[in-house]
Amino acid sequence: MNRFERFPEPQGEAEIRYLDGEFRILRPGSFVRCAVTDQQIPLDELRYWSVDLQEAYADPQAVLKRTMELPKSEG
C-alpha cells in the first residue's frame, strides 16, 4: 500500500464497551444505534452514552427521555 491508498471503512454496526469518558470498540463498524430513537450514530459523532446501562444516545434529549423512564431508586 502506498500513502494515497486508504484502508476500507468498516461497514455496519459496531459493538462498543462504554467506559467513563471513553469507549472501546469490540467489533469494528461505522455506527452504533441510539437506545431510545434507534437512530444510527456515526462513531465520530458519538458523544452521549451510559456506562451503567451500556447504551448510546443520539442527543441530550434521548438521554433525558431514558433517565425519565428509569425507575427511581429507593433510599
TrEMBL record:
InterPro entries: DUF2093 (IPR018661). Pfam families: DUF2093. This is DUF2093 domain-containing protein. It comes from Azorhizobium oxalatiphilum.
